[in-house]
Design a protein that fits this description.
With 365 residues, this protein is α+β, with helices and mostly antiparallel strands. It folds into two domains: 149 residues, Jelly Rolls; 188 residues, Sandwich (Jelly Rolls), CATH 2.60.120. Helix content is 15%, strand content 32%. It is built from seven helices and 25 strands. A hairpin with a 4-residue loop joins β16 and β17. It is globular. The N and C termini lie far apart (50 Å).
């Protein structure tokens, strides 16, 4: 059946994809890309230049909007009945958020700031520079919401308020609350992080290679978020999960390998700050630090630790650091393809960096 036949019969429709086509801005796809370089055009809905990013592994829930606010400019006032988490790619500025009480709050952001306006709270972005544009990446679950309701005015002009999502006023000032669970599940609850590269992380030895990590609970959202770090000369264990998880590099440089169980070879993505990629459903992936310093990345997806949303995400959280031989989703170093460490050692040699993997590779489990 052709696309025209499908449309005529009104079957197999995707309201979000159709909405995106009619927004009049570039739509970028692929496995991964550099968000600093994607083309943007005027986007009437947001009052600034923008683009839509729809990666191959984005799944059914998530998309990325790139917004570029001109020097001295501002976005249109906005409120949306979908959840959003924003990473500042470049520039500096501020955001004004209006609470359900009518009280307004303004906080200032810069490169690598992360923030999340609470669900359907009126908000607006301002560029503080008179000379340089500010570029923001908005990860959001509009695809799921649009495909559920199929009504623009309900999503973009809904007066409904969610005061329970707003959190403490200090959560807009860079403060937050540490939620202690266990290694790999600790969370920082807030609405605003001034610099994702400076937030204190917690050791997560089970993920390998001196790994550290913190989960983020942003505006009591259904969106998943976490920040992870790799020290010099190490890499993490391979793991897999469902689609929708978008990974953003925020410091350093490195690469990631991707493969499905049974594949003879790997897909490789090299990344620097500004790059984003999204592994496909249950695709193994493994991250490698090639920097002379620490490397950090930030992940956004659908289904948080507090609100997994799907049975699939609940299983991922229970098995993300459990050996696949025990029914989990992680490959231990002792079980990995020997080509993986050989490739990493050679890449470090080219850069004059010594591998520090020996203590981890010599451990079992």
């Amino acid at each position: 059946m052709s696309t025209n036949d499908t449309q005529a019969a009104r079957i197999l429709l995707d309201p979000y994809v159709e909405w995106a086509k009619h927004e009049g801005v570039p739509i970028h796809g692929g496995f991964g890309l550099d968000l600093h370089k994607v083309e943007t055009r005027p986007w009437a809905r947001f009052g600034c230049n923008g683009a839509i990013v729809q990666l191959e592994g984005r799944g059914d829930f998530m998309a990325i909007f790139v917004l570029e606010i001109p020097p001295g400019g501002k976005s249109a006032p906005m409120r949306q009945l979908f959840e959003e988490a924003i990473l500042v790619l470049s520039g500096s500025g501020s955001t004004k958020v209006t609470r359900s009480t009518g009280e307004t709050h303004i906080f200032e952001w810069g490169p690598n700031s992360v923030f999340s306006p609470p669900l359907n709270s009126p908000h607006q972005f301002f560029n503080a520079s008179g000379h340089e544009p500010a570029r923001l990446a908005m990860a959001c679950n509009l695809p799921a919401v649009m495909n559920l309701f199929r009504n623009e005015s309900f999503i973009f002009a809904n007066p409904g308020a969610f005061p329970e999502r707003e959190g403490d006023i200090g959560h807009f000032n860079g403060g937050g609350d540490f939620v202690s669970v266990r290694a790999g599940k600790h969370m920082w609850e807030t609405n605003f992080i001034p610099d994702a590269n400076e937030l204190q992380l917690k050791e997560w030895a089970a993920r390998g290679g001196g790994a550290s990590h913190i989960g983020l609970m942003l505006a009591d959202s259904t969106l998943h978020a976490h920040i992870a770090e790799m020290p010099v000369g190490v890499y993490k264990k391979a793991h897999r999960h469902g689609p929708d998880v978008h990974v953003f590099c925020t410091s350093g440089e490195g690469y990631s390998l991707f493969w499905f169980e049974g594949d003879a070879d790997f897909v490789r993505i090299d990344w620097t700050p500004g790059w984003v990629f999204a592994p496909a459903d249950m695709m193994f992936h493994q991250h490698f630090n090639l920097s002379g310093g620490r490397t950090r990345y930030l992940a956004f997806g659908h289904g948080s630790l507090r609100y997994p949303f799907t049975t699939s995400m609940r299983r991922v959280y229970l098995g993300v650091d459990v050996n696949v031989r025990q029914g989990g989703n992680q490959i231990e170093y002792a079980d990995q393809d020997p080509r993986i460490d050989a490739l990493y050692t050679e890449e470090l040699r080219k850069r004059g960096i010594e591998s520090r993997m020996a203590p981890y590779l010599n451990k079992i489990g």
